[in-house]
Amino acid sequence: MSFGDPNNPYGPPPQQPPAAPGYGYPQQAPPGIPPQQPYGAPQQPYGAYPQAPAYPGYPGANMVPQSMPGLLVTARVFLYIISAVQIIFGLIYLYVAAFVNDVSDSADSLSSSSDDPFSDLSDIGDAAAGLIAGIAIFVLALAALSITLAVKFGRGGQGVRITTVIYGALGTIVGLLGLFVGLDSGMASAVIFPLLWVVFGAIITAAPVVPSGTAWFARPRY
Length: 222
Known about the structure:
By secondary structure, the chain is an all-alpha fold.
């Protein structure tokens, strides 16, 4: 009996040949060639690149105001109120200018010569009527500007913001001058209106300057 006989049932089992390497490159790939993943492992889609690491957002990136800040809403209401007052005063000035012009025309009709007192009164009346009419037009133009700024608060940008700040600052200065005159007169009634004007002007000036107002006018528009 020979153990070398392959047909001998009592001999040791024959040695199995080494397993053939799997499809593709072996585990230790040659230099310069990336190792192939084993069969069945999840593959990266064709044309896909590794995801870049996420970068942290910069401060204030997500702090875009979704609605108009309260201080801007207040300033907007004040602009509408100021425009209403300006319209009323503008119409009053126009009426006064028309009345003075009528008086001037009546004096001119009563004048008989250039040296007549009625002639001088007519000339003064014409100049006064022109001056009052000019003031009326200026006040009505300011009313139009107040309404325009208030309307533009919803969609306006830096131009509206800067114009509002300048407009409010000038209004505050005018209110302060009137307040000083009222205080000097000693009359309480002469102080109330300029004081309200100063408060309105200060809020209109400050609303676009505070961080919430600046962010509102600098927000992206689509």
